[in-house]
Design a protein that fits this description.
The structure is a single chain. The protein is an alpha/beta fold. It has three domains: about 1-85, Arc Repressor Mutant, subunit A (Orthogonal Bundle); about 95-165 and about 275-300, D-Maltodextrin-Binding Protein, domain 2 (3-Layer(aba) Sandwich), CATH 3.40.190; about 170-265, D-Maltodextrin-Binding Protein, domain 2 (3-Layer(aba) Sandwich). Helix content is about 40%, strand content about 20%. Helix 2 (about 10-20) crosses helix 4 (about 35-50) and helix 2 crosses helix 5 (about 65-85).
Length: about 325
């Protein structure tokens, strides 16, 4: 195998990565400034050297084979390492080039608007790329170096990753406006949660696990209703299907369902989830994570729910800021 690999040039490996990104021979050839026949010959040479088919081809596009997915991840990791070696140690306080940030779906759409402008101002030479995935997949992507950092909820139970806590996000119960529990005054007791009406996110969502731990959904007799995402969950609540635990950022951003949904805060101890930035424990990974975490920890986030809020931007909410830990990484 090694003898065959020695026949390959870095240009060959870079072309494989470009083709995997475009999934189109014409576009990939244009990016590489070569002809399509030359690209086809290059792909065959790499596949021969590796002893496996990387792409399924058709007249219009190509797709990665299962073996191709694994090979491209390895090739991309090798190329990134070589580029980092060529560039030398990153300058202190500088982020440049592509920075890939993964996020859990129950956080990303609500959190990014608060930090993206500051991120772009602080690191003008960086190109930020965002993606969403469930926690287990994000951890796999961090380990495979497919993302540089990930925004998720602790705990991850991933001792090989560095974790930088950012803030505590309050959890509250969303109910249909007409639900009897919605009309009650004051904070909600855990015993008063209508467990048989709970809507859960699908398997794999950390908020699903937190809801079950918080409300004791496991062990109740009724089969749970599942939602595919947080906004679908909110639609279901507004339609009167049931109630659901939701995080503060999603609640405070609600501008569409104020006449249909009531949010009830819990009594002390108020439930929260810890939002953190995770990254590989490599020199490059820690460099990126420390710069990102330092900025994110300095920003105020509306992570506390206002009593009875229906999405109105009250003075109390504008004053509500995140209560963040000290910012040290869990090493």
């Amino acid at each position: 195998m090694l003898e065959r690999l020695r026949s390959l040039a870095l240009r060959d490996l870079e072309a494989i990565v470009v083709l995997s990104e475009t999934r189109h021979f014409g576009r990939a050839a244009a990016r590489l400034d070569i002809t399509q026949p030359a690209l086809s010959a290059l792909v065959r040479r790499v596949e021969t050297a590796l002893g496996r088919r990387l792409f399924d081809r058709s007249s219009r596009h190509c797709t990665l084979t299962p073996e191709g997915v694994t090979a491209v991840e390895t090739i991309d990791h090798v190329l990134r390492g070589l580029h980092a070696l060529e560039a030398g140690p990153p300058a202190p306080g500088v982020l440049a080039g592509a920075v890939r940030i993964g996020m859990i779906p129950t956080l990303g759409p609500y959190y990014v608007p608060f930090f993206l402008p500051a991120l772009v101002r602080a690191f003008p030479d960086a190109r930020f790329q965002f993606s969403e995935a469930l926690t287990d997949e994000l951890i796999a992507q961090l380990r495979a170096r497919r993302v540089d950092a990930a925004l998720l909820a602790l705990p991850t139970h991933a001792a090989d990753l560095a974790e930088f806590p950012l803030f505590e996000e309050e959890l509250a119960l969303a109910l249909p406006r007409t639900h009897p529990v919605a009309a009650q005054a004051g904070r909600l007791a855990y015993a008063d949660v209508p467990r048989d009406d709970l809507i859960l996110l699908g398997p794999g969502h950390c908020l699903r696990t937190q809801t079950m731990e918080l409300c004791g959904r496991a062990g109740t007799g009724a089969a749970p209703v599942h939602a595919t995402g947080l906004e679908v969950l909110r639609y279901m609540v507004s339609a009167g299907v049931g109630c659901a635990v939701m995080p503060a950022l999603a609640i405070n951003g609600d501008r569409s369902f104020r006449d249909l949904v009531r949010y009830r805060r819990f009594r002390t101890p108020v439930p929260t989830r810890t939002i953190a930035l995770a990254a590989p424990r490599t020199a490059a990974g820690l460099h990126v994570a420390q710069l990102l975490a330092g900025l994110l920890q300095s920003l105020e986030v509306p992570s506390t729910v206002v009593d009875g809020t229906m999405g109105e931007p009250t003075a109390e909410r504008r004053r509500a800021g995140a209560k963040r830990p000290g910012g040290a990484a869990k090493r």
